[in-house]
Specification:
Blueprint: E1 6-7, E2 29-33, H1 35-45, E3 53-57, H2 67-79, H3 81-93, H4 109-117, H5 122-131, E4 134-140, H6 148-155, E5 160-164
Parallel strand pairs: 1-2, 2-3, 3-4, 4-5
InterPro entries: AB_hydrolase_fold
Amino acid sequence: MISKRFFSGFCFKNESELFSEYLIQNDFTVSGFSYGAIKAFEEVLNSKQRVDKLQLFSPAFFQTQDKKYKRMQLMFFKKDSDSYCKNFLKNVVNPTNTNIDKYFSMGTYEELEELLNYEWSEEKLQELVNRGTKIEVYLGSEDKIIDPLKAKEFFLNYSTTYYIKKKGHIL
């Protein structure tokens, strides 16, 4: 049995209410935000349980970034994780001023490394589609964390993809 129905993003906890406008909560839907989208995807992929819908909110999509970009992110986090997270969270809420302090939970170097180096697989996405799982991807056009156009292009063939104008990473 899939123990969790919502998987949190990097540096987040209990933030599902931020997505209440889109979130489907039932026994057959699994969702995740950003880093949590990776975790939700892997959980569904490796489970034999029935999942009708997988919702990916601003999935962490960095496979189009070069190694230098990823190394720099990790280096800045290692050097000063507090400043890194403060800047990260500022970019997460862009273009709004939404206060997300109550959802903050310090992420780890290992989590950041995993999300930066995760490779979304077209074959694995197709496998879920073939099992009958409907995939929904939600992307904000003003996202400062990921490249929403490249993510849209990648996920479009395997999901219903919502590209939401004037919204950022937390939609």
